[in-house]
């Protein structure tokens, strides 16, 4: 939980920085990147029947539905539908989500890409028209002039004269003053640093990879491992539908959705040490049998029935689940976690602009 909250906080700060660092002029003047996925969908709109196109455009499922699907999956342990504990699969889901969010933050901060919706920054934020002082010095003089780019490669040192720009608004945030250069506040948006984090939202530069698709893929992976069968196939179809709709409505580029899919699959695979639906009892029995093989062979050779019985009992016990906490402790902890989670969700919707 703590890792998840830390990841979300880092992401909110980074989203605001990526959206404001180049200024409103850059957002207005920079064209979206060419996206072959968008071209393909437009071509299919011309070829496919109208009813199919309307189905592809329909808002069948959203982020909140994927989260609800996972909550349903977690609570299904109460009815012995999947392997318990439910908190185990929840811990794996949240840990994987936190790691994925941190990786996503590092990825979209490394290279700032223009949004597929050029009007986003003007409609969502009141950011300065001019670029951040860091961009003024290290990006703007070398952004478009081929000679300047060639020279900066050769000298590997900033050399260009920095133009005069309006000064930056610097509110008094006390111990949080270090956030001024990152969040880049304006007087029109208010003077509280917390206010800027609340309104970080989805940002207005392209955030590679898609956070919505990452949640969808983790939910589909959890259902696939826990249940499999046709239910998981349906959920994966919904994931594909969500991906094409993200591209169609230009919330993301195609690359954002594709990367989110394989990163989600990979991260879920490498975190199976937290919770797994796979029955490992057979493997544990074989491992124990391999350890006592020589002793078992000697006991059989000596016709020591008691020794053979004891060794086989050890092998059988090795395959059994380790005894955990009492049922009362598990129920108490589960109840506390459920109450905490519900309060956290309510506070998120009450204290932020969009949860």
Automatic annotation (TrEMBL):
Ranges annotated as spanning the membrane: 214-239, 329-351
GO biological process, alphabetically ordered: ceramide biosynthetic process
Compartment(s): Membrane
Signal peptide range: 1-23
InterPro entries linked to this entry: Sphingomyelin_synth-like, Sphingomyelin_synth-like_dom
A Pfam match: PAP2_C
Topology relative to the membrane: Multi-pass membrane protein
Chain segments annotated as coiled-coil in the UniProt record: none
Gene Ontology MF terms: ceramide cholinephosphotransferase activity; sphingomyelin synthase activity
Gene Ontology annotations for the cellular component aspect, listed alphabetically: endoplasmic reticulum membrane; Golgi membrane; plasma membrane
Domain Sphingomyelin synthase-like: residue ranges: 203-270
Keywords: Lipid metabolism, Membrane, Signal, Sphingolipid metabolism, Transferase, Transmembrane, Transmembrane helix
Family: Belongs to the sphingomyelin synthase family.
Protein name: Sphingomyelin synthase-like domain-containing protein
UniProt organism field: Oryza brachyantha (malo sina)
């Amino acid at each position: 939980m703590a890792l998840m909250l830390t990841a979300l906080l880092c992401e909110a700060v980074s989203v605001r920085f990526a959206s404001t660092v180049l200024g409103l002029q850059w957002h207005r003047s920079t064209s979206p990147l060419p996206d072959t996925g968008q071209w393909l969908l437009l071509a299919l709109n011309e070829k496919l029947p109208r009813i199919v196109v309307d189905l592809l455009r329909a808002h069948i499922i959203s982020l909140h539905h994927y989260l609800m699907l996972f909550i349903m999956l977690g609570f299904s342990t109460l009815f012995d539908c999947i392997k318990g504990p439910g908190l185990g699969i929840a811990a794996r889901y949240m840990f994987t989500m936190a790691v994925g969010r941190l990786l996503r933050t590092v990825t979209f901060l490394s290279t700032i890409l223009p949004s597929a919706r050029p009007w986003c920054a003007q409609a969502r934020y009141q950011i300065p028209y001019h670029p951040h002082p860091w961009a003024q010095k290290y990006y703007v003089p070398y952004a478009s002039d081929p000679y300047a780019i060639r020279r900066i490669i050769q000298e590997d040192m900033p050399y260009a004269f920095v133009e005069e720009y309006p000064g930056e608004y610097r509110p008094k945030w006390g111990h949080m003053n270090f956030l001024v250069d990152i969040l880049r506040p304006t007087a029109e948006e208010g003077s509280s640093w917390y206010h800027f984090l609340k309104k970080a939202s989805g940002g207005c530069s392209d955030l590679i990879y898609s956070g919505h698709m990452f949640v969808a893929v983790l939910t589909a992976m959890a259902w696939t491992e826990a249940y499999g069968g046709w239910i998981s196939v349906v959920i994966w179809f919904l994931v594909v539908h969500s991906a094409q709709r993200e591209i169609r409505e230009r919330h993301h580029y195609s690359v954002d959705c594709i990367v989110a899919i394989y990163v989600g699959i990979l991260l879920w695979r490498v975190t199976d040490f937290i919770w797994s639906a796979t029955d490992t009892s057979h493997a544990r029995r074989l491992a124990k049998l391999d350890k006592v093989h020589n002793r078992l062979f000697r006991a059989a050779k000596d016709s020591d029935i008691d020794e053979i019985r004891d060794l086989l009992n050890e092998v059988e016990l090795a395959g059994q689940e380790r005894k955990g906490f009492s049922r009362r402790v598990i129920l108490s902890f589960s109840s506390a976690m459920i109450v905490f989670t519900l309060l956290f969700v309510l506070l998120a919707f009450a204290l932020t602009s969009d949860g």
